[in-house]
Amino acid sequence: METQRSREFEFELPIGYLDADGRVHRTAVLRKMTGREEALLADKRNRNSGARMISELLGSCLTRLGSLERPGLKVAQDLYSADRHYLLVKLREITFGPELQGTYSCPTCRAANALTEDLGALEVVKLKDSELPEDTVVHLEDGYEDGDRVYDTLVFRAPIGVDEEKIAPIARENPSHGKNALLARCLKAVGDMPRPRLEALGTAIFNDLTLKDRALVDKAMNNGGPGVQLRRDVVCDQCGRHFTATLDFSNFLSPS
Questions:
Q1: Residue pair 105/198 in contact by the 8 Å Cβ criterion
Q2: What are the tens digits of pLDDT across the range 162-186?
Q3: DSSP bridge partners of 75
Q4: Residue 101 neighbours by CB under 8 Å, 6+ apart
Q5: Taking a C-beta distance cutoff of 8 angstroms, is the pair 99, 116 a contact?
Q6: What does the domain layout of the chain look like in residue ranges?
Q7: Strands 227-228 and 187-190
Q8: Positive or negative CA dihedral for 118, 121, 127, 130?
Q9: Of 82, 62, 81, 78, whose CA–CA distance to 70 is shortest?
Q10: Has residue 130 got a pLDDT over 90?
Q11: Alpha helix stretches (DSSP H) within the chain
Q12: Taking all residues of the chain, what is their mean pLDDT, rounded to a whole number?
């Protein structure tokens, strides 16, 4: 008789889930995807939102999180985006193995570059036990002008799954508008601007920033903080250009 094969695997989250009592849960147990998850991915309601699809997958496959048994969809939505992306990579890895076929289009000659990714070799940055992510502070060079005031400091919190789901319809229509919407949801402060004014301005703040200051915001929000590093370097086979791209997950359900 064959011994029972493991379908569940334990991982330490890069950040962890902060519950209502202030406890941080970092040990996650994932089970392999089954036909149930294949049906979730095929559901038209989920295909229109990649963020919602991730929530459904993790809500289904996350069997334990710290002391929380069967944490479910709500917890999956409240996880930090960095933890969600890490768990998504691990879910694919335990189900099909570490190899993932990816294709990356060269921004110069448009050639398709096919590569085999090793998910197990991706760099992961983790916080120390009980540590939580700090706010991201961005010091603008040109500043944000509001009437006769100029504000030169923006403060952001780390995004969570709910943020990703809320901005998904906007991002689907216009990725730039979607990025602005995500930044607006995570924006905690603009200098000493009153909160009601900040909320009234919303995404207009980012529309009015100079491109130099927008680049500073992008750099700060993607500075290699906690999480799995999904940016990878590519050398085009056709023209030799070096460029960076985000890990291609289009073959998520295709065994390599």
A1: no
A2: 999 999 999 999 999 999 999 999 9
A3: none
A4: 114, 115, 116, 117, 251, 254, 256
A5: yes
A6: 8-128+227-246, 136-221
A7: unpaired
A8: positive
A9: 62
A10: no
A11: 35-42, 44-47, 50-61, 72-78, 81-96, 161-173, 175-186, 195-201, 204-207, 211-221
A12: 92
Q: Which of 140, 134, 119 is nearest to 229 (CA)?
A: 119
186 phi/psi in degrees, rounded to 5? -95, -5
Report yes or no: 66 and 75 within 8 Å, Cβ to Cβ.
no
Handedness of CA 130, 59, 50, 27 (dihedral sign): positive
Task: Look up residue 172 and give its amino acid.
Answer: R
Measure the CA–CA gap between 87 and 13, rounded to whole angstroms: 8
Cα distance between residue 48 and residue 9, in whole Å: 29
| pTM for this predicted structure | 0.90
Distance between CA atoms of residues 212 and 244, nearest Å: 20
Q: What are phi and psi of 150, to 5 degrees?
A: -125, 125
What sign does the CA torsion over 128, 23, 229, 115 have? positive
Residues 6+ apart with CB under 8 A from 240: none
